[in-house]
Amino acid sequence: MPFWGGKAASSSAMTQTLGNSYQNQRRGQVLDGSGAESAARRAGGASVSSIARSLIPHRRRLRLDPPTKLFFPYEPGKQVRSAVRIKNTSKSHVAFKFQTTAPKSCFMRPPGGILAPGESIIATVFKFVEHPENNERPMEQKSKVKFKIVSLKVKGPIEYVPELFDEQKDQVAVEQILRVVFLDADRPSPQMEKLKRQLAEAEAALEARKKPPEDAGPRIIGEGLVIDEWKERRERYLAKQQIEGLDSV
C-alpha cells in the first residue's frame, strides 16, 4: 500500500512538474508573441477599416441633368447628339472627365474640364447610330454603349489636363454611369423638348466662347505705351522731321 501510494505520489509530483513547465512555457510564448499578435490585430483592423471606407458611398461633387440617362434621337446611319448639364455642388474646384465604352463611335465636347464651386456647363455628346439588326423595331433596339463621368477635387482654378486623373487615381470618384436611351425624333415628348433646349444652350455657349473679347479700351503694349498715344507721338515726330527738312533747305 505505501508502495502504491509512493508510486502515486511520484506520478503526481511528475504530473505537477510537467504542468508547471507547460504553463511557464505557454506564458513565455504568450509574452514573447504579444507584440506579433497585437501587430497582426492592428494590421487586420487597418485592412478592415480600409475595406469599410471603400464601401461607404462618397459624397457627390457634381449634379447631372439628366441624372442617369443620355437621350438621343433615333436616326440610324447618322451622327446624333445628346446633352447633359454638369454642375459643381461642392465647395471646392472640381475636375471632371467623360469616359465611354465606345471611343471610336462616340465623343464628348468638352471631354473634360474644371468647374468652380456653383459653376455649371452643358456638355454635348455625339454618337453614331447603327442600323437595326434582325429586323428589330427601331425603338426596341438597345444600345450597349455606356458613359461614365468621374470627378477629382483640385486646388484652385488650374489648367485642365487629362493627366490629373492619372496622377491622383486614389482620389478619383465615379459620379455616375449614364446609359443610352433612344427617342423617336418625329414624336414630341418632354425628353425631346428638353434635349433641344439644352443643345441650343450648349451651341450658344460655344459661340460665345469663340467670339473675341470686347475691346474695353486702348491696349497696353511694349513698355507701357498706349497705342493711341504712340500714334500721336509718331505723328508729331514725322511733322517735326518735315519742318526740320524744310528749314535745312
From TrEMBL:
One of its GO terms (cellular component) is plasma membrane. This is Vesicle-associated protein 4-2. May play a role in vesicle trafficking. Residues 33-44 have a biased composition (Low complexity). Residues 61-183 form the MSP domain. GO terms for biological process: endoplasmic reticulum membrane organization; endoplasmic reticulum-plasma membrane tethering. Keywords: Phosphoprotein. Belongs to the VAMP-associated protein (VAP) (TC 9.B.17) family. Residues 21-44 are annotated as: Disordered.
